[in-house]
Design a protein that fits this description.
The protein is α/β, with parallel strands linked by helices and about 500 residues long. It folds into 3 domains: about 5-60, no CATH class; about 85-350, Type I PLP-dependent aspartate aminotransferase-like (Major domain) (Aspartate Aminotransferase, domain 2, 3-Layer(aba) Sandwich); about 355-480, Aspartate Aminotransferase, domain 1. It contains 18 helices and 12 strands. The strands form 3 sheets. It has a 7-stranded mixed beta sheet with strand order 1-7-6-5-4-2-3, with helices on both faces. Strands 10-12-11 form a 3-stranded antiparallel beta sheet, covered by helices on one side. Strand 2, helix 7 (about 170-180) and strand 3 form a beta-alpha-beta unit. The model is unreliable at about 1-5 and about 315-320 (pLDDT under 50). This is Probable glycine dehydrogenase (decarboxylating) subunit 2. GO terms for molecular function: glycine binding; glycine dehydrogenase (decarboxylating) activity; pyridoxal phosphate binding. It catalyses: N(6)-[(R)-lipoyl]-L-lysyl-[glycine-cleavage complex H protein] + glycine + H(+) = N(6)-[(R)-S(8)-aminomethyldihydrolipoyl]-L-lysyl-[glycine-cleavage complex H protein] + CO2. It comes from Prevotella multiformis DSM 16608.
């Protein structure tokens, strides 16, 4: 491939006077802009012919890796399946041309979708009701914590300002608690990777607002002591919060509401097949138990004798502190629509197959690779599991090296160096949507890399070898990123 079109910036392909467009003859006369609206000098834009522009951006687009390119075993990300039917439905003009301020009677179909998915998500999670207001998972976390805070404040229990978070939790848990003005208290894990109930007991008291948990947890392990934990938290007056990032393996098998959780946030862009990654789009609905329904944020869709209606943002005097909105309107509608399409496609019966298949795939990979990769907790996992780097540490090959070498074989790397419980953590999550052939190919490649690490470790340490850009200095790139073409030219001239 021509490197001038593949690896260079569009500015480097620029030649003065070249154009990739032609405008029709001006029939409207000359109307100069006021000086205050004009640039002092022309914008520094690249000048290229049409085919150079098309080929440049087409070639660069092929560097993007996604579900349409191949297998990517990122952990704690769950959804790696985005059916085309989702995109077709969400692209219908009947949905895309809607405006959030249209009269209610003109958007009955959209409101029916939102009402139905509120009920579907409540049924799937075992909750009493759901709000679609939050636009992302972190939005959902914050909303859930605000609901918990409102509940305690409404009861006059204002001293409850602490939230317990496991040491294996996602980083957004303590961050969301801090944003909500709550103090984070960490509870330790046992050597088996589960919440240490003995460490939890002395942390509980009349200052605890609640406890945040992910189940299965970030190690992919099911928290078997949930009934006891729920009782302990409830007995001290706190509420139990479920981080829905790992709901995938529980679909159809267990419901957080039945375990004793009071609040749950869901990532529709993880568990329910919408595009994931790149910073969005997202959706983070929040479900609550019966006693917390009055604290759900508005607007909220309800069903009446006349059809579907929207409860507005005005709150009753009784719950005047419960305005827990984090965004306007009814959430990210097209993402909600994608998730609704997915749920309808599977139906009540087939959604029960998701969890068992995700669990089967993860355990299959784990068992096939544990002879080459260190498995710190050798037990049944759910949808994901964590290695602690290569089993043979004498090679000096790190988890980062393995991740970079995977790129040469056409695979996206798994999540690395998280969770922080293990020094060389490598979190792998295949989900239910991959075939055995795809998984076997990944397993074979991981064995090959382990063999390369033993026999030719430098080959792995210097990877990747076949990508447009080789191994970069991660620290330098983070501290001194080159953000503009002018800065790049300046740096190149300085080196010369």
């Amino acid at each position: 491939m021509n490197n001038k079109l593949y690896g260079n910036l569009i500015f480097e392909l620029s030649h003065p006077g070249r154009r990739a467009y032609s405008l029709p003859e001006n029939r409207f006369g000359h109307h100069p802009l006021p000086d205050a609206c004009r640039r002092a000098k022309d914008a520094e834009l690249p000048e290229c012919d049409e085919m150079t522009v098309v080929r440049h951006y087409t070639n660069h687009s092929e560097n993007n890796f996604g579900v349409d390119n191949g297998f990517y075993p990122l952990g704690s990300c769950t959804m790696k399946y985005n059916p085309v039917i989702n995109e077709e439905i969400s692209s219908l003009k009947a949905f895309t041309d809607l405006h959030p301020q249209q009269p209610v009677e003109t958007v009955q179909g959209a409101l029916e979708v939102e009402y139905n998915i509120q009920r579907a998500l409540a049924s799937i999670t075992g909750m009493a009701d759901v709000t679609l207001n939050p636009y992302a998972g972190a939005h959902g976390e914050l909303t859930g914590l605000m609901i918990i805070t409102s509940y305690h404040q409404q009861r006059g229990d204002t001293k409850r300002t602490k939230v317990i978070v496991p040491d294996s939790a996602h980083g957004t848990n303590p961050a969301s608690a801090a944003v909500c003005g709550l103090e984070v208290v960490e509870v330790k894990s046992t050597p088996e990777g589960l919440v240490d109930v003995n460490d939890l007991r002395p942390l509980l008291g009349d200052d605890i607002a609640g406890m945040m948990m992910t189940n299965p947890n970030t190690l992919g392990l099911f928290e078997k002591d949930i009934p006891e934990i729920a009782k302990l938290v409830h007995d001290c007056g706190g509420l139990l919060y479920y981080d829905g990032a790992n709901l995938n393996p529980l679909l159809g098998a267990a419901r957080p509401g039945d375990m004793g959780f009071d609040v749950i946030h869901l990532n529709l862009h993880k568990t329910f097949s919408t595009p994931h990654g790149g910073g969005g789009p997202g959706s983070g609905p929040v479900g609550v138990c019966e006693k917390l329904i009055p604290f759900l944020p508005k607007p909220h869709v309800i069903k009446t004798k006349e059809g579907f209606a929207i409860e507005d943002c005005r709150l009753t005097e009784e719950y005047s502190t419960a305005d827990n909105r984090i965004g306007g309107y009814l959430g990210n509608f097209l993402i909600i629509l994608r998730a609704y399409t997915y749920i309808l496609s599977l139906g009540r019966n087939h959604i029960k197959e998701v969890g068992p298949l995700a669990t089967l795939n993860a355990n299959y990979i784990k068992e096939c690779l544990k002879d080459d990769y260190e498995l710190p907790i050798d037990t049944l996992c759910k949808h994901e599991f964590v290695f602690d780097g290569l089993k043979d540490k004498s090679t000096g090959v790190t988890t980062m090296d393995v991740a970079k070498r995977l790129l040469d074989y056409g695979y996206h790397a798994p999540t690395i160096y998280f969770p922080l419980l293990f020094h060389e953590a490598m979190m792998i999550e295949p989900t239910e949507s991959e075939s055995k052939d795809t998984i076997d190919g990944f397993i074979k490649t991981m064995h090959v890399i382990a063999k390369e690490a033993r026999e030719t470790p430098e080959l792995v340490k210097e990877a990747p070898h076949s990508t447009p850009i080789g191994r970069v200095d991660d620290v330098l790139a983070a501290k001194h990123p080159i953000l503009t073409y002018r800065q790049l030219i300046h740096d190149m001239e300085s080196e010369e």
